[in-house]
Design a protein that fits this description.
CATH architecture: 2-Layer Sandwich
Distance between the termini: 40 Å
Helix content: 40-55%
Order of helices and strands: HHHEEEEEH
Strand content: 15-25%
Radius of gyration: 25 Å
Shape: rod-shaped
CATH topology: Beta-Lactamase
Structural class: alpha+beta
């Protein structure tokens, strides 16, 4: 078998061009994949934040009139979104007011809200979004939405 140094100059140039082109294609493909992952994560967080804002707007009266059944009904509208794992509405003093789970097998309550300084928090298998509920400029509570990242992993597989 011939070694690389025994090849002719045109053949060596061809191999070098193929190597450089292959490396450039791998780098470009990795860059596109990373960009798609980052933009998909941002899009998911933005969509969940919008859903949390809608839930918060629709549950202000339930919080003000202390009507957890109405707030639970508002949260149950999120069952149309298969990515939602759990949602909750918390009072100003961080007590659970109303909750909704996608799978009620274990009857586990949603995780308590993370500090209010952060609105989105990604873990390895889920994202949590918090939005404050304001009524006439005063805080009335917090909306908590926990979503799985199955959509993101399916996108990566494709």
């Amino acid at each position: 078998m011939l070694r690389f140094r025994d090849y002719s100059i045109p053949r060596k140039l061809t191999w070098m061009n193929m190597l450089v082109t292959g490396a450039a294609l791998l780098l470009a493909g990795g860059t596109f994949m990373a960009y798609d992952l980052i933009s998909s994560r941002d899009s998911m967080a933005r969509n969940l934040s919008i859903e949390a804002q809608i839930v918060g707007s629709n549950s202000i009266s339930a919080l003000l009139f202390n009507d957890p059944q109405s707030a639970t009904k508002t949260l149950s509208a999120l069952n149309a979104s298969p990515k939602i794992v759990a949602t909750g509405i918390y009072t100003v003093d961080d007590r659970p007011f109303a909750t909704y789970w996608r799978d009620r097998g274990g009857e586990a309550t949603p995780q308590p809200p993370i500090p209010a300084a952060t609105q989105e928090h990604f873990w390895t298998s889920q994202i949590v979004v918090l939005r404050s509920i304001n009524s006439q400029g005063k805080p009335a509570g917090t909306v908590y939405i926990q979503s799985d990242l199955r959509e993101l992993s399916d996108r990566l597989k494709r």
